[in-house]
Amino acid sequence: MPSRTNAKIEQLEAKILDVLRHRVGKDERAAKTHDWFTAAVLSLRDEIIDKWMESTRRTYDAGGKRVYYLSLEFLIGRLLRDAISNLGLGREMEQALRTYGLELSALEDLEPDAALGNGGLGRLAACFMESLASLDIPAYGYGIRYVNGMFRQRIDDGWQVELPETWLAHGNPWEFERRESCYRIGYGGEVIAKGDGVEWHPAEAVEATAVDTPVVGWRGKRVNTLRLWTASALDPIKLDAFNAGDHIGALAEQMRADSLVRVLYPADSSAAGQELRLRQEYFFTSASIQDIIRRHVQYHGDVRTLPDKAAIQLNDTHPAVAVAEIMRLLVDHYALEFDEALDITRRTVGYTNHTLLPEALESWPLPLFERLLPRHMQIIYAINSRVLREARKIGMDDGEIAAISLIDEGGDRRVRMANLAFAGAHSVNGVAGLHTDLMKTTVFSSLHKLYPGKINNKTNGVTPRRWLQQCNPALTSTLRDAIGDAFLDDAEQLSALNALAGDAALGERIAEVKRSNKVALAAHLKDLTGVRLNPDALFDVQVKRIHEYKRQLLNLVETVALYDQIRSHPERDWVPRVKIFGGKAASSYHNAKLIIKLANDIARRVNSDPSVGGLLKVVFVPNYNVSLAERIIPAADLSEQISTAGMEASGTGNMKFALNGALTIGTLDGANVEIKDRVGDENIIIFGLTADEVAEKRANGYNPREVIEGSYELHQAVEAISSGVFSPDDKNRYKGLMDGLYESDWFLLAADFDSYAAAQREVDRRWNDQKGWRKSAMHNIANVGWFSSDRTIAEYAKDIWKV
C-alpha cells in the first residue's frame, strides 16, 4: 500500500506540473494560486473522464434503463473536495501539492460555489445526483446553466442587497460544452392542421446547447452526467441594423436568449417576470425531453419502448410542462395515437411534490400559457377532458371535479402545473411521511380519490459523504476510531455508536471536535461580520431560506424576550448563547426581507449592550450557501427546525445538523417527525402545535391578539419590536410586521410562542448537563444514518423507476 501511495503521489506531482505548463500555460515560478487551482482540477478531471467514459460504455453495452432527473435547481457547491474524496485521493493530492508549497485547503477555497440553486430543493437534487452515481445507477441530471444564479446577498445597514453571482467570471474547469447536443426551442406562433395531424409553427425560437459536468460517485464506482442548458439566438446579431447604428436592436434576439439562462427565479411580481419564468421552465424542459427521446430512439429504435429504458423524474412543478412536451413529440413527430402517447408518458414520468403551500403549486395565467405554448395548451385540454370524464364516471361531484381539473376556472383562468404533473405521471411522491399523508387529505385529496394508487412516500436524505466525511473530517476520524469504517459505505452502520453513547471519554473527544469546529467558525464569522463569538457558548443555529412559514420571526421574537429576561434577571445562571441566522429572501418578498433587517437590528442592539455581557450574541451570516453550510453545520450545537406544523414538506438541514451531533429543537413537521422516531424522544426537543391542531385552530377561529396579550414575555417582545426599540432610526419600521401577528398570525407564531420559550429553557437545562448533552449528541449521530440519500435513491429505484 505505501509503495502504491507513493507512486500515485509522484504521478499526481508530474501530472499537475505538466498541466500547469501545457494547458494553463504557466511556468511554476510564475504561477499564481488560481493557476495551481486550475491545474489541480484539470489533473483530477482527467482521471474522472476515464471513469466517466467507462461508465457510459457500460450503460450502452448493458442496454439498461436510465434515470433522468429534471430540476430547475442543482445546488452542487464546490466540486474539488467532493471529487477528491469520492475518488479516495485526499492524502495523495495533499502530498502532491505540498511538493510545490501549496495547501489543498487553500486551493479548495478558491473555487466559487456554482450558482445553480437556492435552497433545499436544489441541494436535494445535488445529493441525489451524487447518490445515483454512488449506487451505480445510470443517470442524467437536467437543469439550466445560470450565468448569475439567484443572487449574491450582501447586507448593507442590515438590509439585503441583491448582486449578480459571478461564479463563471473566470470560466468553469469542470464543464464540457456538447455542441452536437443542440435543440431548437419554440415559443408562440400557431398550430396548423396538416393531413391527419397538426404542425406547430412557433413565431420565435432559441437554441439550447448542452454543457456537461461529471458527477463522481463514492469510491469512483460510477460517473454520471449533470447536463445544463445554455441559450443562444438563432440569429445572434442583425448586421444590417448594427451597421445602421441600431446597436441594441441588432442584439435584441441574443439578449432575449441570454435572459433565459441569466437568473434563477426571476421575480414574477410583474407580467414580464411571469413570462420569463414560464419561458425559462419550458426552455430547459423541452431541451431535456428532446435530448432524452433523441437518445432513446438512437440506441433503442422504437419510441414505444421509452418507459422500459427511461425513467423521468420531475423535481417539483417547474418541469411539469414535460408531460405536454412528451405528448407533443410522440403525437406530432412520431405519429402515435393520443391515448397511446398518454399511456407511454404516464409510464415514463414520476413527479415529486415538495410543498403543501397553495401559492407554491405553480399555475400560469391561461392567456399567457396559450400565447407562448399554443400546441401544449391544446394537449393539456385534451388530457383534461379525459381526466374529468374519468372523474365523472366514478361519480365525483362538481366540487371534486373542479379541484381535479388541470384548468382553474375560478376567477382568472389558470393552468395548474401540479395537477398536470399528477395526471401525467404514474407515481406522485411526497418527501416525508407527514407530508405524504397531508398530500392525500389536502392539496391532492380529490386527485388521490381518482387515482388512489399514485401517491407514495420517499423521505428525503442527504449524502453522508459531503455532510459528514468532507465537511467534518475530524468527527469522521473520531468515529472511525470508535466503530470502524463500515459507516463510510453504509451510513446506517453509524448505529454501532449507540452502544458507546455512555462512554464518557468518547463523548469528550466528540465534544472536543465540536469545540474545534466552533473555534474555526467563530474566526470565519469574525472576518465576515466583525462579531466576536465565544466558542464555549451554545451555538444556536437557524440557516435556511427566509420564509414566514419557516418562522425565523418566532426565533427572533424569542431572542428579544430572552434579551429582556437576561437584563431583568441578571442574578440567574443564564446559558451563554450565540444565535446564528442565515438565508436569502426572494427579491420581491417584502416581509422576508424585513425579517432579515430585524435580525440585523436586534444583533446591533444586543451585541453592543454591556448589560448582557457574553451571555447573548446574535449574528446574521451574509450570502448563505453550500460552502458556508459546510462550516456552520459541524459547529452547531442546536438546530432550529421550527416551521409551522404541516407546512414544511421535509427539510434536509435537520438531517445534516443531527448527523453532525447537533440536537434539534423543532415542531412535529416534515422529517422532524421521523427524526424524533429515530433518535428517541429524550434526544430531541419538540414543542408546539401538531399539524392537526394547526388545522383545527385555523378552522375554528383563532384570536392571536388574545394570545399575545395573555403572554407577558411575548407581549413585551412584540411591543418592543413594534414601538421601535430596535429601529430608533425608523420607529414604525416593524409596526406592520407586528400588527400582522395581532390581526391574523397565519403561521401561528403567537400560538406556539410559550411552548417554544419553554423548550428553549429546557435546552438550557440540558446544556448545563454536559454529560447528558454529549450522550444525546452521540445518539443523534448514531441514529440518523437512515436519512442518507443513498437509502432514498434506493427506494426511488426500486419502487418508482424500476432500475
Automatic annotation (TrEMBL):
It catalyses: [(1->4)-alpha-D-glucosyl](n) + phosphate = [(1->4)-alpha-D-glucosyl](n-1) + alpha-D-glucose 1-phosphate. It comes from the Bacteria. Its cofactor is pyridoxal 5'-phosphate. It is an enzyme of class 2 (transferase). GO terms for molecular function: 1,4-alpha-oligoglucan phosphorylase activity. SUPFAM superfamilies: UDP-Glycosyltransferase/glycogen phosphorylase. Its EC number is 2.4.1.1. It holds the Pfam family Phosphorylase. Keywords: Carbohydrate metabolism, Glycosyltransferase, Pyridoxal phosphate, Transferase. Signal peptide: none annotated. Phosphorylase is an important allosteric enzyme in carbohydrate metabolism. Enzymes from different sources differ in their regulatory mechanisms and in their natural substrates. However, all known phosphorylases share catalytic and structural properties. Belongs to the glycogen phosphorylase family. This is Alpha-1,4 glucan phosphorylase. The lineage of its organism: Bacteria, Pseudomonadati, Pseudomonadota, Alphaproteobacteria, Sphingomonadales.
